[in-house]
Write the structure tokens for this entry.
Amino acid sequence: MFQDLSFCHEWEMLIPNLTVIHIPVSSGPLAWTFVAMLSNGAAMVNACDVAAKVIANVAVWSILVYGLYFLVIFGDYTIGFEMSWLSLGKICLGVLLSV
């Protein structure tokens, strides 16, 4: 599913002026899938030792790298905004509320 959404997003970026369709069809589901996959994977590992904590942190920081990739390569600001909101809600607030 992740590869299908990535392909749909790259194909849809070739068509200009489709922001109204772009956000709910490809950009939103791609951002949601990527953030959910990495944050749930980091939580699933239950990082107790150093190696698991390093892998979980790399997974969480890859959300930033993936968002910057779409911003720099495609000039797509919508997926950057969506990833930042999802990261704030899912990761940052989840950590703050668990303390």
